[in-house]
Amino acid sequence: MDTPRWDDLVVVARVARPHGLRGEVILNAETDFLEERFAPGHRYFMLDGARVVSIVARTVWFQRLRPVVGFDGYERIEDVEALAGRELRIEAADLQPLPAGVFYHHDLVGCRVERADGGVIGTVAKVDGAGDASRLIVDAGEAGEVIVPLAADICPTIDVDRRRIVIEPPEGLLDLNVVRAKRLRRGRRW
């Protein structure tokens, strides 16, 4: 099996911490498809230094909607302590298909964000949150970061193929974030 490039893989979870003494870890999932994504036998990729390595789930159960996973070759707490903070990724081809109008966060990163009048705001640097609480973090250059709620009435046009998102923000939303970014650059703490 060829090892994929790290940057071509998609984050599905981060290892939060070890759980118990039998080599299991609690994951902070970054997917809405918990049961489809986390099951015994599923393969993930993680970084081991600068090397991409594969890892296979041996056991999976859920505690308060968080996956608790044991991996092949990791049998004791000492084996998994160094995994805390590492990302687990999968190949994009293994993603679940989405219904129309729903997007994976990684598909939105890099999209140009502009107003309906054509004025460019910036480029999506990342997407925070999940579901109805998702927010676009837009790199607006000199203005800093602009946070835009990912809501249908604010983001009526999302064209992933053309790498473009058109927004219709409520009055004051963009100005508030730009002002905050300017204050932060001057060194003030809030």
Strand and helix layout:
Elements: E1 9-19, E2 24-29, H1 34-37, E3 43-48, E4 51-63, E5 66-71, H2 77-80, E6 87-91, H3 105-108, E7 112-115, E8 120-128, E9 135-139, E10 145-149, E11 157-159, E12 164-167, H4 173-185
Parallel strand pairs: 7-12
Antiparallel strand pairs: 1-2, 1-6, 2-5, 3-4, 4-5, 7-8, 8-9, 9-10, 11-12
Task: Write structural notes for this entry.
Residues about 180-185 and about 185-190 have low confidence and may be disordered. Helix content is about 15%, strand content about 40%. β11 (about 155-160) and β12 form a beta hairpin. The termini are far apart. It has about 190 residues and is mainly β. The chain has 2 domains: about 5-95, Elongation Factor Tu (Ef-tu), domain 3 (Beta Barrel); about 105-185, SH3 type barrels (Roll). Strands 3-4-5-2-1-6 form a 6-stranded antiparallel β-sheet, with no helix packed on it. The longest helix has 13 residues, at about 175-185.
